[in-house]
Amino acid sequence: IARAEAEKEAAKEPAAKADDAAGASADAAADEPEVPTIDLGKFLPVVIGKGGVTIKGIQEMTSARLKIKDKSTVCSFFGDADAVANAMEAVQSIIDAQQAQLDSIVEEIVEVGDKIPAVIGKKGANIKKIDELSGADLKVNKPENTITISGDAAQVARAKELIELYMAGGPPPDCREEVELGSERGRYIVLGEKGTTIRKIQEETGAKLTMERGKTFVVVEGDDEQVAAAVAQLDELLDVHAFTERVETNGHIAAIIGKQGVTIKGIREKTGAAVDLIGDMVKLTGTQEAVTA
Length: 293
What we know:
Blueprint: H1 2-31, E1 37-39, H2 44-48, H3 53-62, E2 65-68, E3 74-78, H4 81-103, E4 106-111, H5 116-120, H6 125-134, E5 137-141, E6 146-151, H7 153-167, E7 175-180, H8 184-191, H9 196-205, E8 208-210, E9 217-222, H10 224-240, E10 243-248, H11 253-257, H12 262-271, E11 274-278, E12 281-286, H13 288-292
Antiparallel strand pairs: 1-3, 2-3, 4-6, 5-6, 7-9, 8-9, 10-12, 11-12
């Protein structure tokens, strides 16, 4: 009996040792610090960067080590506390910036009808140019004759403008500038009587000048040389008509205005200068010749 009991106790010893080893291993694992991680999700390619340049840069800048397992979007951070904190902050800032950009994206569908071939262009040349010039993302739906534009508000607006240009049968200009006219009077100066001035500038420079009703600027389009020449003429024209002089009325405002405004209207028509009453003063604006007439 005594021998049987001894053998039984001896059999228990390996199992007890195995239990002790497992317990020690579990305690050691519990003592290991938890590895900080960030799930990069859809921003994984951006954080890695082309050829790994972004993630390498973060590691060099912070001295932390970043590891992403195959087929995983979780990034683990290794190093001392400061290095890990700085690396995590750098990664999070990239994610936040990308998310903010996504949040600002708007989407608009433009119906182009039978003009879709003109918008796409030969071998997609036109649609590629629209994409490059606007910075927007364009997706063509040929069966429905629509183009979906995605991007920020400015990119979408520019893409729509370019699409409309191609739909109208003309490519977008190489150069485009807006010249501020300052006021309704500026519009009148640039237009000239019956549009003679604006036509003259277009004929001499080859640029296209457009003024929308209610807008205080003129759009100048063409190649670089044409636009530069037209803008120079516009600036010179506006400068010449910007001469200003103030004259005291000495209490004769009523006489200057005249009955039903006949006198002041006559002064404007005869000299071409703008005549504005400001308190007890008359402000004259125009060419120096017109103001001093």
